[in-house]
Amino acid sequence: MGKTYYVCKYTPLELLAAFGGECENLNHMPEGFDFADQIAHPNLCGFGKSVLEAVLAGEVRELVLVNCCDTIRSVYDLLKDMFPGAVRGQADEVPERKNHAGGGQLEFLYRVDALHCGNACSRERMAAQLADLAKKYGEYKGKSFDYEAFRSAFSPQQRMTMPHIAVLGARMGEELFEMTAQNMPLPVVNETCVHNRSVAWTYPEEEFQAGSDGVRPDGHSDTGANAGESNRSGSGIRNSDVSNVQRDGCACGNGAHGEGEGTAKADFSALMDWYAGELLGQIPCMRMLDATGRKQLYQDPSLKGIIYHTVKFCDFYSFEYADIKSHTDVPLLKIESDYTVQSSGQLLTRLEAFAESLSLNPQRRSNAQHSPIDRRDLPPVLPASGRRLAPTEAVAETFSEGAFPQIVGEIRAAQENPGAVPGGGYGSNGCSGCAGQSDGANCAGQSGGADWANKTGMAGMSGEFAASGGGMTVSNGLSAGQYGRRTPHMGKGYFAGIDSGSTSTDVVILNKKKEIVASIILPTGAGAAIGAERALEQALQEAKLEREDIDSVVTTGYGRTAIQVGDKSITEITCHARGAHFLDPRVRTVVDIGGQDSKVIRLDEDGSVKNFVMNDKCAAGTGRFLEMMARTMEMSLDEIGKAGLSYEEDITISSMCTVFAESEVVSLIAQNKKPDDIVHGLNKAVAAKTAALVKRVGGAEAYMMTGGVAQNQGLVKTLEERLGTKLIISDKAQLCGALGAALYAADMG
């Protein structure tokens, strides 16, 4: 027997622990759904498929589910059909492999059928489910109910009170959460779904000991008329009787305390009734009929940013996102994954751009990374102050005074008052060495404080901090391809920006006056790193400079993390915003249609990113879409860019999918439709897709179009008609990303 896996915060973990269960949240994101796709419906959500994949791959042998949604009910039905013995708590001698190829063997399977409300009827039903689970799980484990194990399984309340970013919404896989936390400028707390579990943080000892039901802490019954009586609606529990409850929910019945078997049964039922109320009384999930209690998750005064996560094909949490968006002024980013590792990688640009928008001040952007924080890993709230301290100076150094004065003030105020925490450390367990000094201080810690430091690390798994220069450097084994890549040196006052796109690689070199002294646009080719090296060399030749003359290099774009010649990488969203503002400070909305994605960026008065949206899940509405259509029509990009300027028939391309649109174009060609008319139809389709993004981001005058597609005159004209305004098209439009990167390089000095 191994671990018992669960997927829902309403899972009775404390009850399972009472029978010796070692529980673990099943939250890994697989590479794909090779096994699950063989048996599951195509529209089953990615998380449901990940559960099936883990079981069929042999990673899970004990599983307790809760009927929180149709997906989980479907998963249970599929597994019950394949492993009927697991429902009885008995592994099948010959596991039935009905049309699946996995080698998994499920030994225990149970589904808690809970109602989605917390009224008396739901509580009664949940209590009955708990008693049934106790009986079956106890039989499977071959153990009796251990009252002390049950009692000790309850944890104290834990809340983050320092400035932080919260991940809300549907559950987020561990891999995606790890990546999210590592790219944020503040600690990140997982408040999604199963992670905001809040069951009876403090076990009510007085309810089950002398003074309330006649039972002393040593488990022996007091004598007298009140012994065994309850003062809480039938929930008074005798330790002596509860500890004798066997796997079937009955007491040993030895009569040692003058009570019979029936009393023990009644007491266990009362305990499960109390426990059912605590389970149902948690911060509700979106599947509960009354979810108003969730507002506390995003009305936290220490919350400085929200990343809202949804899972493909799950509609429960989209409603909450809309509500949060209209009731909070905290920076908010929405992302969606299909619960595979591959989908996580596709979200990296959005996460990095969100982090950059939070940092605000480009002159002191930090390379700091933070390890993920699970609420269960946070130290307990201090009884005296209700505050929890984290490594302070190192976090404060992440930001400039001008960027986050309030946050910096809070953090430094906490540091200046270390007496609030025993030992001057993280929490009630103390931490002995978290000084956060400029030369680095080792956060050794003691007891639980050190354990939390090692789990969260704040800026690295080692818990070691070293504030340096404009930000916090971290000794957590960062790859060279992510941040610093070469030893800084003094050049001759020149700064380079490299924009590595899927189609072209662009380089801009600036002098000290931020004047462009060289620019180059080359095809990216087969490798981003090689293409960047080649483009930089040609730009240097054009400027008559040597590599040593360049003070700093910033990379951006699709291949930014693969380029080794840079000092720092910044997302194309932030760089396009900076470049557009430099070219024309009037710009408030940037439309960038790139080779593999399209994005619309909303700017504020100083050129900082106010909001952005992206279309990066398919080629629809991107440069690749236009390139494919040009190839189908046997036209060059220059030709297709001019062909749509005039037309006779107003053709509509109904499909935006590149594959289906290509078939539609072929059909139109077969009907002898004129090329100009077909191209105009394609331009209308792309313009409609782009205009939808503009509306989502709240576009405002003035508009600038950047990227290579800005040279497509027909599309520009059609988009202007769709938006009802003129687009600013700079002669540096395709260089905008590289220009922004070069400006950030100049900020680095």
Please report the distance between the alpha carbons of the first and last residues.
Answer: 60 Å
Which regions have little confidence, pLDDT < 50, spanning 5+ residues?
93-100, 208-260, 361-412, 414-485
Number of strands: 22
**Class inferred from helices and paired strands:** alpha/beta
> Rg, please?
30 Å
Q: Assembly state here?
A: single chain
Helical content class: 25-40%
Overall average pLDDT: 75
Strand order of the largest sheet: 8-7-5-6-9
Percent strand: 5-15%
* Count, helices: 24
Largest sheet: 5 strands, parallel
Approximate shape: elongated
Structure, explained:
The chain is an alpha/beta fold. Residues 93-100, 208-260, 361-412 and 414-485 have low confidence and may be disordered. The strands form 5 sheets. The protein has a 5-stranded parallel beta sheet with strand order 8-7-5-6-9, sandwiched between helices. Strands 15-14-13-16-17 form a 5-stranded mixed beta sheet. Strands 20-19-18-21-22 form a 5-stranded mixed beta sheet, with helices on both faces. Helix 5 packs across helix 9 (261-280) and helix 19 (623-632) runs parallel beside helix 21. 50% of the residues are buried. The chain contains 24 helices and 22 strands. Strand 5 (164-169), helix 7 and strand 6 (188-190) form a beta-alpha-beta unit.
